[in-house]
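User: I'm writing a tutorial on reading structure tokens. Could you give me a worked example: one chain, its sequence, then its tokens, then a sentence or two explaining what the tokens reveal?
Assistant: Sure. Here is the example chain.
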Amino acid sequence: MNRLATAAAAALMATGGALAQSPEEGAALFATYCASCHGDAATGDGVMTGVLNIEVPDLTGLAAANGGVFPRARAAYQIDGRDPILAHGGEMPFFGDLFDGEMAAFKTASGQPILTGAGIISLVLWLETIQP
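And here are its predicted structure tokens:
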């Protein structure tokens, strides 16, 4: 992260960081934008799975697949389109533009700040709550 981005993230975190982010807001966003593919319980069984050419992942196992630690950065980067960066998109649509309005920062498990859209943070916070 460059110095300007680091300074911006630090300033946001010093002022409370996540302004209106919450797992509850994330649950509502998930129901609206994600459940059709990932399913209401995020287990990969959404109503669109029958017409997709890919297997939709079970999002309740993200922490288990990462040594018991929820991968906040990887989840945020997947939603906002930074991971993986592909010239013509990937299996999952990019939602970064949809949640681009208010930017906010939050920390990964290692303490590294991430600057992304406030809605994406809410989605990630909710995904973290549904890990067994």
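What the tokens reveal: The chain is about 35% helix and 10% strand. The helical segments are 3-14, 23-33, 35-38, 72-80, 118-129.
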